[in-house]
Amino acid sequence: MKKMLVLLLLATPLILSCTSSTASRKEAKEEKGVQEYVMAVDVKQFEKDYAKVHGNELKKMEEDGNPGEFILEDGKDMFHKVDGSAGKSCASCHGENGAKLKGIAVNYPKYDDNLKGVLTLPMQINMCREKNMGVAKEKSWKYGKAEITAVELYVKSLSNGMPINVKTDGPASKFYEAGKKNFYGKLGEWNWNCAQCHVKYAGRYSRQEFLPPAPLLADHWPSFRLDWGKEAGMHTRTIQDRFKGCIKNMRVSDDKIPDFETEYMRNLELYVTAQANQRPQHVPGFRR
Ligand code: HEC
Ligand code: HEC
User: Fold this and answer.
1) Which carries the bigger pLDDT value, residue 16 or residue 108?
2) Which residue among 157, 181, 214 closes a domain?
């Protein structure tokens, strides 16, 4: 499947050069060193087309229940469980059922003054465990593992239905621009960038793979994904896991794929999440 996509993409410039009316031929604007592309697809239309092809299949699976909900329930249990030397649970400070954290997650990731960089929700959660619960640093939850993914999912679910509202101005703007550079920066053997697939050629369909447009990438994480079935128990994963998947598909060797929570990943997460601003957040997502 991946190979066919590659063929499609290699062939696209040829196709494009023969047609003259596509949006991507419009003049792209240059901004702060990044040559931005014009979005090739109307996002609403894309959603309709996607539903036509995958809608029934996904709907049927979702009717049986999104298995990501089990992870959400785990997260809820952990949120109410005492841990660390202070004898507190998250709920001791943030309320039963996270009452005081409603509407918080849609602001993440965000610029943080102490960090002088981008703070993601999992980092904030670990900070609370350390600073406010007295959990030893060695017991910090490792990004991408079950515990932090479950609690992130639970905290995010408290903002389901609310519009994503990531700040990109003020002190955040420098990091947003850095994230944009990452999104447009060439990687791997074929010198691709994220924007080629998610902006310039967004909406194209080949061999059961749609190229989803940038505004649809970030509103549903952590997400359940059938494709992640190989490793038991970890079908439900995070946005940075998904970044890694795409970077790998761009033919970047394993040792060169950026680690979780590096500046590269955090700035990229800020940029990609901001593309979903105003769209309602809904977790856990459900994907093939
Ligand atoms: C002893 C009280 C206490 C406990 C226990 C605690 N927190 Fe916090 N939490 C705070 C305080 C105070 C802040 C704001 C300042 C800060 O960042 O420390 C905060 C901030 C947060 C925020 C960011 C809020 C915002 O406005 O952006 C989140 C999310 C959060 N905590 C989640 C958690 C989770 C999840 C747990 C359990 C793993 C937890 N906290 C445990 C006191 C606590
Ligand atoms: C060669 C084309 C290609 C490139 C380059 C690419 N992606 Fe993707 N990306 C895809 C495809 C195809 C999918 C959807 C696959 C599927 O249906 O599961 C996807 C899915 C995603 C998703 C999840 C969308 C969802 O609906 O769950 C995210 C997030 C994402 N990409 C981010 C990135 C980032 C960040 C980069 C650059 C580091 C990147 N992608 C580079 C092809 C690409």
Assistant:
1) 108
2) 157
Mutate to test the pocket of ligand 2, among 186, 246, 250, 268 (most ligand atoms within 8 A of CB): 246
196 pocket-lining for ligand 2 (C-beta < 6 Å): yes
| Residue 261 lies in domain | 34-55+163-287
Q: Region 255-264: what's the mean pLDDT?
A: 98
Distance from the alpha carbon of residue 123 to the mean position of ligand 1, in angstroms = 11
Task: Name the pTM for this structure.
Answer: 0.90
Q: Report if residue 265 sits inside a domain.
A: yes
Q: Are residues 132 and 206 in the same domain?
A: no
Please tell me the residue having the least CA distance from ligand 2 atom 31: 246
- Judgement on whether residues 218 and 113 belong to the same structural domain of the protein: no
Tabulate helix, strand, coil % of the chain (nearest 5).
50, 10, 40
111-149 exposure pattern, b = at least 16 Cβ within 10 A, e = fewer:
bbeeeebbbbbbbbbbebbeeebebeeeeebebbebebb
pLDDT digits (tens, 9 = 90+) for 109-161: 999 999 999 999 999 999 999 999 999 999 999 999 999 999 999 999 999 99
Atom of ligand 1 nearest to the CA of 131: 18
Best substitution site from 77, 80, 121, 132 to test ligand 1's pocket, by max atoms within 8 Å of Cβ?
132
Instruction: Please count the structural domains in the chain.
Output: 2
How far is residue 172 from each of residues 168, 238, 282, measured CA to CA in Å?
5, 22, 24
* End position of a domain, from candidates 157, 179, 198: 157
Q: What is the mean pLDDT of the chain?
A: 88
Task: Let me know if residue 5 belongs to a domain.
Answer: no
Nearest ligand to residue 180 Cα? 2
- Give pLDDT tens digits for 80-118: 999 999 999 999 999 999 999 999 999 999 999 999 999
CA of 280 to the centre of ligand 2 (A): 20
